[in-house]
């Protein structure tokens, strides 16, 4: 799940320190008239300008009673006091909950030296800061969420960036002058090679290791702070959540979520004019200001890339090429919003910005705590800090849940199978639109078939029915001739199509069947005259009576033409067209039903294919699980073997110590002199018989 979010910016104002209270400028130049608003007032006597900033959170931790701003007498600053718990609940606790869901998170404190960054991040034991409260709530939430189907694993790391070198604060290696190396992983991003990651199970473990790391942290006494941090420290908690879910196929599928939360305590920016560093402090100050400058540059570049850009309408020109004079405001009227390619961001200019790449514009949810001083002496530093925090608000991160790809694919396939099953059941469910459409098409098909049968029956009745003979066609002699005109020449057998011939045979059903699609072949029809004449003239248009003996031969089958009359050709053609139209509609209805059945079969095939994929990935996951169990057993056996070897080595060491002790003891000989016993006479800590040469 992609979750775009901006950097959360918060500002905290610390109390006055002892050095600031001793001066005449112990009047705050910072005020917070309401939540989320910070006002910075000018300290110049003639200046009345006030800079106002809006942030996500504001914390007033200045403990002076009802202080009045030097720039605006109407803006009260006695807003509710923000303690350590309030700062943690507003900033760190939401990040912790997102981390438990699988997102990466980062919280870093930014500000000038002695502005209260370390106090807010760590705090003293009697008033703990963000990290102790974060660790406490972490294990509380894990205890609530952990079950037989959900398991959490927590690891930690703690390092500092001193003079652009990384030092591991949890390692016992004394020689770290060269520093650790930062590497780039193609998937997870930058990481520190060789950094210690320790597994922890409780708050006590983490706080114990933090005390170990803080003892190795680089701090020094400066003009503004007795315990000033001379390096950037990064405290990281790595969370691994394993969930096991049972799916309809009966397989237990494990999903793994990896997330981390970084808490960064940055070193304070220093103005060398006011702090007056010398020797090593000056070198440290240069590195600190350089890394903070690169951090500010990265923040500015990201803010510029995320800011909306506008196309500008250029001034129009007349045909002579001269620019028309227009109001300058009209020249730069916004035309439309455009999305241009993001510019380059110089992450690798500093180790700090390289490691914080995912936290600034990457895969993380980030919060920035800007700490400022209320004193007028630090007005410029406070203004720079507020400007950086305001720029950081426009940085957009794209945090995603860090899920194992294999588990994600299996979960997506199972969701697709469930969706197809539901869709298939809805299609086949009575009362659904698809079922209604199929039923309607079947009804139309039945109605068309009935209509075809009725028209076929009417056509057959008209073809074989008897009609009264016309008087004009009756011969004067009272006898009737056949419907076929006589000719002295022998009759010819013409090729006549059964569908277009005016002569209708006694078997028309096959020709008019609605289910027949085979084209009718032309039939050779032969008409034989009767052998005896009636004695009257033969009239070709007279109607045959019961005594006619004309024979119609179709495919060498003789059929008498008694009681056969002509059908009206126009009516016959109209009925034939109607039958063809109904047959066409019948075919279309059958095709629609066939297409619906093909779609259902296609969905069933997709469903079976997805089931096969899910079973395959389930078996693959089971294979991986068995392999991991085998490796775990081998690892445990190796550990047991190592422990056995260590015990044997300890026993051998003890035996060697006994031998050495016995060797060092002096042996008293017969002459009363003391000499050390020779090595050849010692074995397993006991003296043996003297050698032959000594005897």
TrEMBL record:
It holds the Pfam family Kinesin. GO terms for biological process: microtubule-based movement. Residues 586-613 form a coiled coil. InterPro entries: Kinesin_motor_CS, Kinesin_motor_dom, Kinesin_motor_dom_sf, P-loop_NTPase. Residues 463-492 are annotated as: Disordered. ATP binds at residues 111-118. SUPFAM superfamilies: P-loop containing nucleoside triphosphate hydrolases. One of its GO terms (molecular function) is microtubule motor activity. Residues 476-485 have a biased composition (Polar residues). Keywords: ATP-binding, Coiled coil, Microtubule, Motor protein, Nucleotide-binding. It comes from the Eukaryota. Residues 6-395 form the Kinesin motor domain. One of its GO terms (cellular component) is microtubule. Belongs to the TRAFAC class myosin-kinesin ATPase superfamily. Kinesin family. This is Kinesin-like protein.
């Amino acid at each position: 799940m992609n979750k775009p979010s901006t950097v959360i910016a918060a500002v905290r104002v610390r109390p006055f320190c002892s050095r600031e209270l001793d001066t005449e400028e112990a009047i705050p130049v910072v005020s917070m008239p309401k939540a989320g608003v910070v006002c910075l007032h000018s300290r110049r006597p003639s200046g009345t300008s006030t800079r106002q900033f809006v942030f996500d959170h504001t914390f007033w931790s200045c403990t002076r009673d009802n202080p009045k701003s030097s720039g605006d007498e109407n803006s009260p600053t006695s807003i509710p006091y923000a303690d350590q718990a309030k700062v943690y609940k507003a900033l760190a606790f939401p990040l912790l909950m997102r981390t438990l869901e699988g997102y990466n998170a980062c919280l870093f404190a930014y500000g000038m030296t002695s502005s209260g960054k370390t106090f807010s991040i760590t705090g003293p034991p009697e008033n703990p800061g963000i990290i102790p409260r974060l660790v406490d709530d972490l294990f509380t939430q894990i205890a609530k969420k952990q079950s037989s189907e959900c398991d959490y694993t927590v690891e930690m790391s703690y390092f500092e960036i001193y003079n652009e070198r990384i030092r591991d604060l949890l390692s016992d290696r004394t020689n770290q002058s060269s520093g650790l190396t930062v590497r780039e992983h193609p998937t997870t991003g930058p990481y520190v090679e060789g950094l210690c990651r320790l597994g922890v199970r409780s708050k006590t473990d983490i706080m114990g290791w933090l005390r170990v790391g803080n003892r190795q942290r680089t701090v020094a006494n400066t003009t503004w702070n007795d315990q000033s941090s001379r390096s950037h420290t990064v405290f990281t908690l790595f969370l691994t959540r394993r969930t096991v879910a049972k799916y309809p196929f009966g397989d237990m599928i494990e999903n793994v979520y990896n997330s981390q939360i970084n808490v960064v305590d940055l070193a304070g920016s220093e103005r060398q004019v006011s702090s007056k560093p010398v020797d090593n402090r000056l070198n440290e100050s240069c590195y600190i200001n350089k890394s903070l400058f690169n951090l500010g540059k990265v923040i500015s570049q990201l803010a510029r890339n995320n800011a909306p850009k506008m196309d500008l309408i250029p001034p129009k020109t007349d045909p002579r090429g001269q620019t028309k004079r227009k109001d300058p405001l009209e020249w730069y009227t916004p035309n439309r919003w455009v999305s241009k390619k993001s510019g380059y961001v110089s992450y690798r200019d500093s180790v700090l910005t390289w490691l914080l790449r995912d936290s600034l514009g990457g895969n993380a949810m980030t919060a920035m705590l800007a700490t400022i001083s209320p004193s007028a002496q630090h007005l410029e530093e406070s203004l720079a800090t507020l400007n950086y925090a305001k720029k950081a608000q426009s940085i957009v991160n794209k945090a995603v849940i860090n899920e194992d790809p294999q588990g994600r694919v299996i979960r997506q396939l199972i969701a697709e199978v469930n969706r197809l099953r539901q869709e298939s059941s809805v299609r086949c469910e009575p009362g659904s639109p698809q079922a209604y459409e199929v039923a309607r098409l079947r009804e139309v098909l039945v109605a068309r078939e009935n209509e075809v049968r009725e028209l076929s029956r009417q056509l057959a009745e008209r073809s074989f029915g008897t009609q009264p003979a016309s008087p004009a066609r009756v011969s004067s002699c009272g006898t009737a001739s056949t419907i076929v005109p006589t000719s002295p020449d022998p009759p010819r057998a013409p090729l006549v199509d059964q569908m277009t011939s005016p002569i209708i045979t006694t078997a028309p059903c096959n020709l008019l069947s609605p289910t027949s699609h085979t084209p009718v072949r032309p039939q050779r029809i032969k008409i034989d005259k009767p052998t005896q004449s009636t004695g009257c003239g033969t009239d070709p248009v007279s109607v045959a009576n019961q005594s006619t003996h004309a024979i119609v031969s179709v495919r060498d089958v003789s059929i008498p033409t008694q009681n056969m009359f002509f059908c009206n050709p126009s009516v016959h053609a109209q009925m034939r067209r109607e039958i063809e139209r109904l047959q066409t509609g019948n075919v279309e209805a059958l095709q629609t039903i066939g297409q619906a059945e093909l779609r259902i079969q296609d969905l069933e095939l997709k469903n079976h294919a997805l089931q096969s994929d899910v079973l395959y990935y389930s078996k693959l996951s089971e294979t991986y699980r068995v392999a991991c169990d085998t490796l775990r057993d081998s690892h445990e056996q190796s550990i047991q073997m190592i422990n056995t070897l260590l015990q044997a080595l300890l026993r051998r060491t003890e035996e060697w110590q006994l031998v050495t002790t016995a060797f060092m003891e002096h042996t008293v000989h017969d002459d009363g002199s003391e000499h050390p016993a020779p090595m050849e006479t010692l074995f397993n800590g006991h003296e043996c018989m003297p050698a032959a040469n000594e005897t």
